[in-house]
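Closing statement on the pyridoxal-5'-phosphate sub-project.
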Amino acid sequence: ELRPFGARLIAVSKTRAPEDVKEAYAAGQRLFGENYVQELSEKRDLLPVDIQWHFIGHLQSNKVKFLSPFVSCIQTIDSHKLLMEIDRQAQRSGRVIDCLLQIHIAQESTKFGFTFDEARKLMEDQQLQACQNIRVAGVMGMATNTEEEDMIRSEFRLLRSFFEELKIGRPDFREVSMGMSGDYRIALEEGSTLVRIGSAIFGERKPKG
Ligand SMILES: *Cc1c(COP(=O)(O)O)cnc(C)c1O
C-alpha cells in the first residue's frame, strides 16, 4: 500500500456503478467511501468482502443498523445520540466500529458537524467513555468550497491542531480525515491521514436523481 505523506486514500464511490468499484479494486484499492445507506448496502452485496467501507454521508440514527454488521468506519458523527446508537448496534453485531467526529471548519453554515467546544465536551462524556463497541478514532472535516487556498489551508491547519489537542492521552486517536479532489494536496501538506477522493479518480459525478 502506497502512503504518500503517511496518508491513506479513500476512493469515494458514491453514485458509481459496482463495475467502477471493481476496476479500482483490481488496481489494488481496498478502502472505499460511500454516502448513502441504501446504495452502500446494495453495492456491498455485489463486491468483494475484503473491501473496507467508510461511511462519509449524513447518517440518521434509525439507519445505523443497516451498516453496523459490516462498516469499518463511520466518519460523520455529528451527535451524541448517533454515537450511542452505533455502540448499541455494533454490540448486537459483536463488533467494534471506528468513528470519526465530524468537525465544522468551513464558512458555509450548511455543513454538518460539531464545533471544537462541542467535540471537547463530547470526548469527556462519561456515557461515551463507557462504550465498548465504538472506537472514537479521530476527526473529519470539509473545508470551505472556495478558490482561496489560504482559507482552505488555514481551516485544515486548525483541524489538524485540534486533533493534536484531543489526541493527548488517547492512543486510539489517530485519523484526520480531510481533503477531497479539489483540495487534497493542501490537506496532505497540512497533515491529513485520510483523503477522500471521488471525481479525481472516477470522473465528474452526474447530479443525483
Ligand atoms: C463526495 C464526497 C467526497 C469526494 O468528493 P470529490 O470532490 O468527488 O473528490 C469527499 N468527502 C465527502 C464527505 C463527500 O461527500
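The pocket of pyridoxal-5'-phosphate is lined by residues 12, 14, 35, 56, 180-182, 196-200 (CB under 6 Å). With this model delivered, the sub-project is considered complete and its resources will be redirected to Aim 3.
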